[in-house]
Amino acid sequence: GPAMTASMHALIAARLGRAADSETYFRVSYRPFVRGAFLLFSEKRTLDRCVFTTGAGGILQSVIYGFGGVDYDQWDKIPTTKPTLPPTWKSLTLRGVQYRGKRYTITTTPEKRTVVEE
Fold first, then answer.
1. Which helix or strand (DSSP H or E) is residue 107 part of?
2. Angle formed at CA 4 by CA 80 and CA 99, multiple of 5 degrees
């Protein structure tokens, strides 16, 4: 559906270093679909009675693997690629990233990234 497609476009745009495009796709992937006081994620723009976990999962993937740059294909070091934060974000902190039996906190700003074992 459109929510999942836009979130994957956000992830890919971030991986390509296209920060403004990634932010646009990110917003399109969730804004039309959140509802109510608890901002539940609906499957359709016009449906209010559903929690769409697949769409919410796509949002998480765009943040973790796109903006955060986490990449589990690199097995020789802490798995990260060059992050691309959306232009309006000042930082992103991912806590509890598990890798090879250890947990890490990854903090990304436009200037640098730090990886700290928890």
1. strand 102-108
2. 25
pTM: 0.83
Please list, in sequence order, all residues whose beta carbon lies within 8 angstroms of the beta carbon of residue 75, skipping any fewer than 6 positions away.
Answer: none
69: phi > 0 → left, psi -120 to 50 → alpha, else beta; which? left
Please indicate whether residue 47 or residue 96 has the higher confidence score (pLDDT): 96
- H/E stretch holding 4 reads helix 2-15
- Asked if residue 29 lies in contact with residue 3, where contact means CB atoms within 8 angstroms, the answer is yes
DSSP 14-32: HHTT-HHHHHHHHHHHHGG
